[in-house]
Amino acid sequence: MEQFAFLVFLHVMAAIGVFVAFAVEGVAQTYLRRAATPDEVRAWAGSYRAVRPIGIVSLLTLIATGLWMTLAEWGWTAWILVSIAGIVALAVLGAVGGIRYTASVEAASRESGLLSTASRVALTNPLPLALLIVRSFLATGIVFLMTAKPDLLWSLIGLGAAAVVGTGTAALVVERAAAGTPQLLAHRQSGSRAASRPAPRR
Q: 141: which of 59, 68, 94, 187 lies 20 to 30 Å off by Cα?
């Protein structure tokens, strides 16, 4: 029983670690998206690099302790199987959003002067932020499964609802974030200049 209680403790701490990684990633992305110089990128690049080890260690600990408790105590119940599917989705979405954005951060940090337009576009790409939001909602849904331990139907409903709400929230954020991308700003500025020109005389 003491061993099981310790596994539960590690399992909960691992879940907290996942949310800590999300929080660090969210703050780092917020400031990286606002960066105008490589110095500003470098100031937050270290925080963004810390996300991967925190997230990986937490996720692996979550999986290892979960499997241990499943084999020792719970068995392969419906909520565990759905939770595993959710964890796999977390890992895949994290890789999709993180690998390319990390490369963009590293490339921007090596520049000098003001950031190039290409780096500004890459750093303000709304996809990594959208995937972070979806992952946060999915993780919340998994926590619901861990605590409520529902049957198959309610497990699917719980995780599905988290995915739908997360995707909807991410879509709204992407729409708002896209309004501030360098391409759109440049387009708006050129449109404003064109509108301010006097009409040709006939």
A: 68
Domain with 81 in it:
2-196
Cα–Cα distance for residue pair 162/202, rounded to 1 Å: 60
Half-sphere exposure of 128 (CA within 13 A, CB side): 25
3-state secondary structure of 196: helix
| Residue 201: DSSP 8-state | P
**HSE toward the beta carbon, residue 121, CA cutoff 13 A:** 8
202 domain-assigned? no
* Total count of domains within the chain: 1
Residue 6 lies in a domain: yes
Q: What is the pLDDT of residues 158-168, one digit of tens each?
A: 999 999 999 99
Task: Give the tens place of pLDDT for each residue, 82-134.
Answer: 999 999 999 999 998 888 999 999 999 999 989 999 999 999 999 999 999 99
Neighbours of 32 (CB within 10 A): 24
The structure tokens listed for 158 are 């719980």
